[in-house]
Write a structure and sequence with these properties.
The protein has 123 residues and is mostly helical. The chain contains six helices and no strands. It has one domain. Helix 5 runs antiparallel to helix 6. The longest helix has 28 residues. It is globular, with a radius of gyration of 17 Å. The N and C termini lie close together (11 Å). One of its GO terms (biological process) is lipopolysaccharide biosynthetic process. Keywords: Cell inner membrane, Cell membrane, Lipid A biosynthesis, Lipid biosynthesis, Lipid metabolism, Lipopolysaccharide biosynthesis, Membrane, Transmembrane, Transmembrane helix. It is a multi-pass membrane protein.
């Protein structure tokens, strides 16, 4: 895999991770809600106008374009597993930015993911 291909995959992973963190920040800003017939429009409006969520959707849109570019250069059997690195990025970002728990079990799981991605990328 050349540097451009790696850069595209890395950018796609980071955009997906950013989108997830932004979605969580948006739902944190809105608070817990229940969907019901009575509140579909009010909650839908809150979701559609919450800047974190709008930015997350923008990140997803850009990531689709980046991902298409990546897939034009890298076999999907190598590229797709690399998306799992978003789990690692998200766990660290959620701990750092959102104060979510980070423990040895998550660290071991992230190590397994990283090891798996290394194995797949060398195949």
């Amino acid at each position: 895999m050349n540097l451009v291909s790696f850069g595209l995959i890395f950018t796609g992973v980071m955009l997906n991770a950013a989108a997830q963190i932004l979605m969580k920040a948006g739902t944190n800003a809105i608070g817990h809600f229940e969907f019901s017939t009575a509140n579909i429009l009010p909650i839908g409006w809150k979701l559609a106008t919450e800047w974190h969520i709008v930015t997350a959707l923008f990140c997803y849109g850009i990531s689709v374009v980046v991902w298409i570019l990546a897939l034009s250069r890298v076999p999907v059997s190598i590229a797709f597993p690399m998306l799992s690195m978003a789990y690692v990025v998200n766990a660290i970002a959620a701990w750092y930015l959102l104060g979510e728990a980070f423990n040895p079990t998550k660290l071991v799981g992230m190590g397994v993911i990283i090891f798996g991605v290394i194995i797949i990328s060398r195949a």
